[in-house]
Write a structure and sequence with these properties.
- The protein has 176 residues and is mainly beta.
- The chain has one domain: lipopolysaccharide transport protein A fold (Sandwich), CATH 2.60.450.10.
- It is 10% helix and 59% strand.
- It is built from one helix and eleven strands; from the N terminus they run H-E-E-E-E-E-E-E-E-E-E-E.
- Strand 1 and strand 2 form a beta hairpin.
- The termini are far apart.
- About 3% of the residues have low confidence.
Length: 176
Amino acid sequence: MRTFSLWMFCAAALSIVGCEDKIQPSIISTVDVLAQQESWNSTIVVSDSGRINAVIDAGYIRVSELSQQTQMSKGVIVHFYNHEGKQTSLLTSEEGSVDEISNNLEARKNVVVVSSDSSRMTTEQLFWDNQRQLIHTPEYVQITTAKEKLRGHGFESDQSLKHYRVFRVTGQTQAD
């Protein structure tokens, strides 16, 4: 009888332990983490009505599901073109992204833009508005042209660096 009671007690204890909630693994949404497409040493052409606005070369390109962003890293080079198809400037950065709907670009880390007339602008983050063909940033910038050296926080320019504004400016310029 004692063996039977001990057996019943063990069976009851095991059934109670067996009914406990199991530890559920945490569920992490990986929908936007996993790459839908990946490419190495590739080119993206941004055009409108058959006219090329920019050609982007990147060491690594990653498109994620649902993000509507193309992420680029391992070196990004952007060739900007005017309405006549002539290259107006060259942008380099370590990484960036392109919005798949608007084709707007964000460049990050060690951003340098050099125009066809050798004007040079540096910053850590820069945005390109595809529709307006403008580059801008709220970040610290340095711009060097044949006539001036300017520094400041905030910048807006056409992509050829011919007509630009530096906000909260410090620097040097030469009078004509």
